[in-house]
Design a protein that fits this description.
There is one protein chain. The chain contains nine helices and 19 strands. By secondary structure, it is α/β, with parallel strands linked by helices. The strands form five sheets. Strands 1, 4, 5, 6, 7 and 10 form a six-stranded parallel beta sheet that branches. A five-stranded mixed beta sheet has the order 11-19-18-14-15, with no helix packed on it. Strands 12-13-17-16 form a four-stranded antiparallel beta sheet. It is globular, with a radius of gyration of 25 Å.
């Protein structure tokens, strides 16, 4: 009996010591993890504000640029067109000075933290125009580049200006990935008469899903990449995409990095006034500004509304904060440095249409490169609809 009691006491003592040891080890691991996070990366909460859960510490230099095209033609609206000769000029420059990768490759690297080639660039087109095939596809493939076209499935093979499904299927075998641009290029922010917010969200969700399902049925894959028609979205639309597992792409400027908002990824327009290679070079060379948070978090503004102060928190280890510059409607904005980044004060009233704030700052380590960040804003007309 004494031996049993003695052994039981020893066993209870062993359990106590083991439990105490576990607590000490757990606390040490937790402390080390917190210390590591504070030194090498943004906090998990900050990263999650941009919809991104990092598997590795954010790498400021692991950026890529997405180019956005529409038409390849001399006969289509200049604002959304690049001529074949301009496109060839772009491609030749990219071939010599940059590394063109597929959108899938770039997104996989950002998600995993794997290294991208220096000065990585992704090529995308919107709307599925037939002139992409007629005037652009052979030029792009001549350089061996893969690229992505975002299409409206309800218009494929229906409008004379659009690719048909035979074109799409053939191109998909030749280095082209097709993804979602909604079913019929609707304004996602437009609400129908007397439509509730929940009914509006259900309607646009159905539209996006129908487009994705048609791509899946025709091509056998579903990327769940959505380009917003007209670049328009708000926080509700972003939340919808996040819930459904989509990545969202806009028409605002900037490079993409590990801290980029997954539901509002930027792209540089490269057509019309933006087709000039000399000005495009600076954009191709840009880095993703490591933004942790912005306040207020909004995109839709009312007519004549004034936004006021906009605060932006950033990682500052490689940014020359004293040389940051921000522009709104072509005018330079006064910058105020803060402990967590910087703020700007926007006093100009908003008018119907689309506009954006662009901010750039030089890199400390790469003197010839700039960090770039853009925030788009959308204002409806008096009747509540949005401009094309």
């Amino acid at each position: 009996m004494l031996k049993i009691v003695f052994k039981s006491a020893l066993f209870r003592q062993y359990l106590f010591v083991a439990a105490l040891t576990r607590k000490i080890i757990v606390k040490r691991i937790y402390f080390i993890a917190l210390l590591s996070m504070s030194v090498t990366s943004a906090s998990a909460f900050q990263a999650n504000e941009n919809g991104l859960s990092l598997t590795t510490p954010a790498n400021n230099n692991n950026s890529f640029v997405i180019l956005q095209y529409h038409h390849v033609s001399t006969e289509t609206p200049r604002s959304t067109s690049v001529t074949p000769s301009e496109l060839e000029q772009h491609l030749a420059y990219l071939s010599e000075f940059h590394n063109v990768v597929s959108l899938q490759t770039a997104l996989d690297a950002i998600k995993s933290g794997a290294a991208l080639p220096q000065k990585a660039v992704v090529i995308t087109f919107d709307d599925g125009y037939k002139n992409i095939l007629e005037n652009g596809h052979s030029l792009i493939r001549k350089h061996g580049f893969d690229y992505t076209i975002f299409i409206n499935p309800a218009q494929i093979g229906v409008l004379d200006s659009q690719l048909d499904w035979d074109d799409v299927k053939q191109m998909s075998k030749e280095g082209v990935t097709f993804a979602n641009h909604t079913l019929d290029h609707l304004h996602l922010l437009d609400k129908q008469a007397n439509e509730s917010k929940s009914s509006w969200l259900k309607r646009i969700e159905k539209n996006i899903d129908m487009a994705e399902n048609e791509i899946q049925e025709q091509l056998g894959y579903s990327k769940k990449w959505l380009v917003y028609p007209f670049g328009e979205f708000d926080t509700k639309v972003k939340d919808l995409l996040k819930r459904k597992g989509y990545l969202g792409f806009g028409q605002h400027s900037g490079a993409v990095g590990q801290l980029s908002d997954q539901q509002s990824l930027p792209r540089f327009p490269a057509a019309g006034n933006y087709a000039n290679l000399e000005t495009l070079k600076t954009k191709l060379n840009s880095l993703a500004m490591p933004v942790l948070a912005k306040r207020p978090h909004r995109y839709v503004m009312e007519i004549d509304e004034v936004l006021g102060e906009l605060q932006i928190d950033i990682r500052q280890d490689d940014i020359q904060l004293s040389r940051i510059a921000c522009y709104f409607r072509g005018e330079s904005l006064p910058i105020e440095e803060t402990d967590s980044g910087f703020s700007v004060d926007i006093k100009t009233p908003f008018k119907p249409g689309r506009t954006r704030i662009n901010c750039t700052a030089p890199s400390n380590k790469q003197s010839d490169r700039f960090y770039w960040y853009s925030i788009p804003f959308f204002t409806a007309k008096e009747d509540g609809t949005y401009l094309d």
